[in-house]
């Protein structure tokens, strides 16, 4: 983890192509590359919120690239959902941790209220810890500057070794800070108890507060890294969840409109089919009626033709009989 964090820091300081030669082709930036920090692209990196506090997460092992973040913001919403889900999952785990700390703080207050609190004599220890913390911070800052110089000169391994030593010193410094915070809480509670003041637990970061304390101390707490960091995490999670809810509602509305359009088209097509069917039936009936009428006319014409032929035949027979009768009468007169 320390080596990867040091490499990520060097990437941010010197660029991700720091080990390439002068003639090497630079690798194009793409926001889906696994080397880039997903949390930084979605909103912000939680590792940057609690630096040098009791909740310090250490250096982020991934690269924070503004160009990749710009590409991410321009990408489609559907392709970014997985990154948002991972951010929400990690942020929620941190918020769950502070919720458990808040609950333990309330239980501790309840227990301390039931028992008599002895007077603490830990001021000297707190002062010693503070001096040691100051010395460690100076060493860490010096090592970081030296690591940056080494990285600029191209001595990557030496720079990574210095960053690893920085991480060890940071762990020692964090241990001393936690001791001082514990001493501070005890002293604060003892002071409040001596002054007959009540204490409470901050519902955002879990810190112990004196009820009715001076406004300047309250403002200092509200502007502190831990309080602002956890408040920012909670706001970011709520914002993403609200956007996701709005997105789902819009998608559902679009699907409902599409279903309605499909139903309207189906009904319209059904009406067209019915109309075409009626028109076809009407055409069939009209054609059938025309066929029957034509058939009747044909039969009528045939009857007329037959009657005309019969009439002609009878007329021809009568004419023939008349000729034969006139011929017979003439012959009879000649015989006489």
Automatic annotation (TrEMBL):
<feature type="compositionally biased region" description="Basic and acidic residues">
    <location>
        <begin position="245"/>
        <end position="291"/>
    </location>
</feature>
<comment type="similarity">
    <text>Belongs to the Luc7 family.</text>
</comment>
<dbReference type="GO" id="GO:0003729">
    <property type="term" value="F:mRNA binding"/>
</dbReference>
<dbReference type="GO" id="GO:0005685">
    <property type="term" value="C:U1 snRNP"/>
</dbReference>
<dbReference type="InterPro" id="IPR004882">
    <property type="entry name" value="Luc7-rel"/>
</dbReference>
<protein>
    <recommendedName>
        <fullName>Luc7-like protein 3</fullName>
    </recommendedName>
</protein>
<dbReference type="Pfam" id="PF03194">
    <property type="entry name" value="LUC7"/>
</dbReference>
<dbReference type="GO" id="GO:0006376">
    <property type="term" value="P:mRNA splice site recognition"/>
</dbReference>
<feature type="region of interest" description="Disordered">
    <location>
        <begin position="245"/>
        <end position="336"/>
    </location>
</feature>
């Amino acid at each position: 983890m320390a080596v990867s964090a040091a490499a990520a820091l060097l990437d941010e300081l010197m660029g991700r192509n720091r080990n390439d030669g002068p003639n090497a082709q630079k690798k194009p930036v793409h926001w889906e590359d696994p080397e880039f920090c997903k949390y930084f692209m979605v909103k912000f990196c939680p590792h940057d919120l609690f630096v040098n506090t009791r909740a310090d997460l250490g250096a982020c092992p991934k690269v924070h690239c503004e160009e990749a973040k710009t590409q991410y913001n321009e990408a489609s919403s559907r392709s970014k959902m997985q990154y948002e889900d991972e951010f929400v999952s990690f942020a929620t785990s941190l918020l769950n941790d502070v919720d458990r700390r808040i609950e333990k703080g309330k239980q501790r207050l309840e227990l301390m209220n039931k028992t008599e609190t002895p007077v603490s004599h830990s001021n000297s220890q707190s002062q010693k810890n503070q001096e040691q913390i100051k010395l460690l911070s100076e060493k860490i800052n010096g090592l970081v500057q030296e690591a940056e110089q080494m990285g600029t000169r191209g001595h990557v391994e030496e720079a990574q070794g210095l960053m690893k030593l920085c991480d060890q010193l940071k762990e020692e410094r964090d241990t001393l800070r936690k001791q001082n915070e514990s001493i501070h809480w005890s002293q604060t509670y003892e002071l409040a108890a001596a002054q007959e003041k009540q204490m409470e637990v901050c519902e955002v970061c879990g810190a112990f507060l004196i009820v009715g304390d001076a406004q300047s101390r309250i403002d200092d707490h509200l502007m502190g890294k831990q309080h602002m960091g956890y408040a920012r995490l909670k706001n970011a999670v709520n914002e993403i969840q609200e956007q996701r809810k709005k997105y789902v509602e819009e998608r559902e509305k679009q699907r409902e409109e599409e279903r309605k359009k499909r139903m309207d088209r189906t009904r319209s097509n059904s009406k067209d089919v019915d109309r075409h069917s009626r028109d076809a039936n009407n055409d069939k009936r009209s054609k059938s009626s025309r066929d029957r009428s034509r058939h009747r006319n044909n039969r009528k014409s045939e009857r007329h033709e037959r009657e005309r032929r019969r009439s002609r035949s009878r007329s021809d027979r009568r004419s023939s009989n008349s000729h034969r009768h006139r011929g017979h009468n003439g012959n009879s007169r000649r015989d006489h």
